[in-house]
Amino acid sequence: MSSYVYKTTRRGVLLAKTVSYQVRLCSGNFRHLEVLKDENNVAIVTMKRAPVNSLNTELLTEISSVLTDLEETKCSGMILTSFSDKVFCSGLDIYEIFKSKPSAIGTSFSTLLEVFIKLYGSTFPTVAAITGHAPAGGCVLGLFCEYRIMVQNFKIGLNEDQLGFNAPSPIVKLMINTIGHRNAELALTSGRLFTTSQALQVGLVDEIAKDRTEAFEKADGFLRRFEMIPPLARNFTKQSMRRALLQDVTINREKYTEGFVSMISLHEVQQSIAAYLDNLKNKKRNAH
Ligand SMILES: CCCCCCCCCC/C=C/CC(=O)SCCNC(=O)CCNC(=O)[C@H](O)C(C)(C)COP(=O)(O)OP(=O)(O)OC[C@H]1O[C@@H](n2cnc3c(N)ncnc32)[C@H](O)[C@@H]1OP(=O)(O)O
Fold first, then answer.
1. Which of the following is catalytic: 160, 163, 191, 245?
2. Where would one find coiled-coil regions in this protein (predicted)?
């Protein structure tokens, strides 16, 4: 099976089937990620955990490790995307939080917080090229980036309430910061998934693309906005805007993890997750 590879150039991003002048990041050997860098030191990080990029601890750990690499190698920007033209990321791996040991749930969540700290707090500009659905943790991953470009006709949102549990308070704050209090309350209490165009309307995404290629062109356009801005000044401003949330999660990481584990381990929540999984399977069965 041939897979598309993205070749970035000074003037834009081209979809190509060649790896002729790309530099593969050598410092990591990843199972669920492809990391490519162009000559301008822009990294394209592609999640490739088939079929739906569900975030298990292994994928989260790999993302965390890439982010460390990108900081150390002074990357000038990052595009986060998916191998799939249908799903950007389906959220936390439900099977890691369903009927699992508290320690496993805790590790998964704590690693997600680690990704938050590194991605939300990164010194380089970040953009998500959302090439498909992005429910729950998938939306969260997009929200950690500075800018979101989403391909039309998919769904994105925080549907945790549909699974029987609530989004932790830092994520509520992040959602409020992004779409405002009123929209966030309405969306979170109903576990709403927005279509791409609805997401644009409320500001959950910043631009719509008609397909993957356009999403990459727009992502590249976003990164090029900063070519003339001194990186130090840009980063100071970014950090000052993000400091409160970053400090909260950094200081209270353990507390948030314990809270998440206790909530997920509740019998009623496990029952809701079981019902949600049945529903997911039935939907699939009925579609065939
Ligand atoms: C300030 C910040 C501080 C940080 C705080 C962070 C706190 C964040 C909290 C975030 C909490 C998140 C909780 C979650 O993310 S729970 C996961 C919720 N996910 C979902 O509800 C999505 C469920 N999936 C779907 O809706 C659909 O699968 C899809 C993604 C729309 C794709 O549909 P499609 O028709 O293409 O594919 P299928 O439905 O047939 O799925 C294919 C197989 O993949 C399995 N699958 C799907 N999703 C998941 C998942 N999340 N985990 C594990 N497995 C998943 C599905 O069962 C199919 O498997 P099968 O082929 O074996 O049947």
1. 160
2. none
pLDDT in tens, 228-277: 999 999 999 999 999 999 999 999 999 999 999 999 999 999 999 999 99
CB 167 near ligand 1, within 6 Å: yes
Tell me, letter by letter, the H, E, C secondary structure of 222-239. HHHCCCCCCHHHHHHHHH
Residue 2 falls within a domain, yes or no? no
Q: Residue 45: which of 173, 219, 198 has the closest Cα?
A: 219
Mutate to test the pocket of ligand 1, among 57, 280, 282, 288 (most ligand atoms within 8 A of CB): 280
Ligand 1 centre distance from Cα of residue 145 (Å): 20
Q: Which atom of ligand 1 is nearest to the CA of 280?
A: 39
**Domain limits at 168?**
33-287
For ligand 1, atom 35, name the residue with the nearest CA. Answer: 284
Q: Residues 6 or more apart from 154 whose CB is under 8 A from it?
A: 86, 88, 130, 132, 133, 134, 195, 196
Interface confidence, given as ipTM, is 0.97
Indicate if ligand 1 lies below 6 Å from the C-beta of 136: yes
Q: Which atom, in ligand 1's list, is nearest to the CA of 162? A: 21
> What's the CATH number where 233 sits?
3.90.226.10
Q: What is the C-alpha separation between 158 and 192, in angstroms, rounded?
A: 6
122 CA distance to ligand 1 middle (Å): 26
| Res 27: pLDDT | 55
Q: What percent of the chain has pLDDT over 70?
A: 90
Both tokens of 226, joined, read 């900063």
| Catalytic residue from among 91, 137, 142, 164 | 137
Tell me the pLDDT of the chain averaged across its residues: 91
User: Is residue 47 within 8 Å of 81, Cβ to Cβ?
Assistant: yes
**pTM of this prediction?**
0.93
- Our count of domains for the chain comes to 1
Residue 157 lies in a domain: yes
